[in-house]
Amino acid sequence: MDDLAHRLFARPWSFLRGARGMGDLPDAGPLEVAFAGRSNVGKSTLLNALVGQKALARTSNTPGRTQELNFFVTDTAPIVMVDMPGYGYAAAPKKTVEAWTGLVFDYLRGRVTLRRVYLLIDARHGLKANDEEVMNTLDQAAVSYQIVLTKTDKIAPSALETLLAETAEKIKKRPAAYPEIVATSSVTKEGVDALRAELARLAAEAAGAQ
Questions:
Q1: Domain 15-20+28-188: which topology?
Q2: Residues whose CB is less than 8 angstroms from the CB of residue 45 and which lie 6 or more positions away in sequence, other chains included
Q3: What is the pLDDT of residue 34?
Q4: How many C-beta atoms lie closer than 10 Å to residue 151's C-beta?
């Protein structure tokens, strides 16, 4: 891990606020990076791996556990991480799912401090139709996003290579897609340092612009 990333993630991170509607969002301040993906893709688990804290973000094997936008901060760092409710199937009432799915899309389209969305894709399943819908929204809103494959320990290395090539081809012509794909596993910690380095770079750029 490079020095910038080490300094950023050696600090303790803490929960700032949960938002169930756009009116609950914290005041716009430091840049924000959001972690989006289908329900049960491993957003909360990856966040915990990034910060090296076991229970910063609540995790569950039940899809739909995260039902609001959860904001996490660390002292003096000009970056906020946002754990988003999953979209797609969830073990929750239909109206509840519709409400938080609407919140996800409203936030992605309209948050002025949102600098990058990390779109998490389960390596076992690849891109699905609702992932494509999110990418369409981000392309239209001109919000930069980067594909992060999760649970790569659960597929063979050859299958991962094929998935990386197929995914890169699918995002090649998308205007807001960052071309580099990060393959991660919260179990083996593969890709975690690479993602930390990318977040540290964004934080450093934000600090330089202040």
A1: Rossmann fold (3.40.50)
A2: 57, 59, 150, 186
A3: 95
A4: 22
d(CA 114, CA 81): 10
CA–CA separation, 166 and 145 (whole Å)? 17
Residue 52 per-residue DSSP state: T
The pTM score is 0.88
Task: Express each pLDDT in 58-78 by its tens digit.
Answer: 643 433 345 688 999 988 778
Residues in the chain: 210
Q: How far is CA 80 from the centre of its chain?
A: 12
Instruction: Say how far apart CA 49 and CA 153 lie, in whole Å.
Output: 15
Q: Which two tokens stand for residue 178?
A: 């960052």
Task: Give me the amino acid identity at 192.
Answer: V
How far is residue 141's CA from residue 136's CA, in Å, rounded to a whole number? 9
What token pair was written down for 105? 């899309």
